[in-house]
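The protein record passed on below.

***
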Amino acid sequence: MMSEEEIITIEGASIGYRRKSSIQKVVKENISLHALKGELVALIGGNGVGKSTLLRTIAGFQPEIEGDILIRGKAISSYREKDLALNMSFVSTEIIKVSNLTVFDLISLGRYPHTNWSGKLTDEDLQIVEEAIEMVGLRGYENKMINNISDGERQKTMIARTLAQDTNIIVLDEPTAFLDLSNKYEIVHILHQLANQRGKTILFSTHDLTTAIAESDRVWLMLENKVEEGSPEDLILKGSLSSLFNNSNLFFDQDKGDFRIKKMVKEKVIVSGEGIALNWTVKALERNGYEVIENNDNQSDDEVIKILISYPEWKVIFHNSESKFDSLYALSRYIKSQHL
């Protein structure tokens, strides 16, 4: 049975910055959000809405201005620094570049909240470090210098350090920034496994909506005038993601689960076929501004473009003439050239 233990609780919180003077800069007000044990939570929002400020406040780097932020039912402000480090680890968005430090050394730093005054690692500490290395797929990289590995490998190292810290809560600010597509998916998939299989509560901010929808259990959605939460699918069905970006030319396609640019429809097209070739033919036509409609026996060949797919061949029928193509690129070029 899944745990319903609430790990992070935010009730009516205002976040921002307290300056030395009495002036305060409030970034976002009246935030109420939750995260359960074993959940991977994606924090999504446009630039400047306060995602990093919220994460830093949850991590205890800066105090909330109003309201309550609780970790396991206890106000975060009441935790001592070492106690908080035993409960929560944090990975920033900045790329860590340090000289004379190996992958193993950096990951080992995660154990220091658990060591005694001497800071010496025990055999148990070393075993935990080895397990963290194995978990993120860095076996064989232990003795490599941090400055000599890729951004993706460096980010895995930072995640392994948090695993070595062995906290129940992991907070990451843009962990997939600067990574290629393969590494983006691999990093988030590792986080998903850690949350679901090891019962950790993991919160990460991201601009990569596709990855967040595919892997996250819960989404915290920060908009200009409100904050919402729910599963990715629930937020899509409610239409909440459509408000993510204030751009009249951009819309969220609820059927396809991603953002698209609005285009003027040039013509309607009937497509007949099956399988993956049909799906990608529809995508190619929509990208070029054509609307794919269902076949209607009342429509004549003179009224609408018809495309018949018998992969690897496409046949275009229009005005009682036929043209055949062996690729979607050739078909798209033809349609454009004929101004259909």
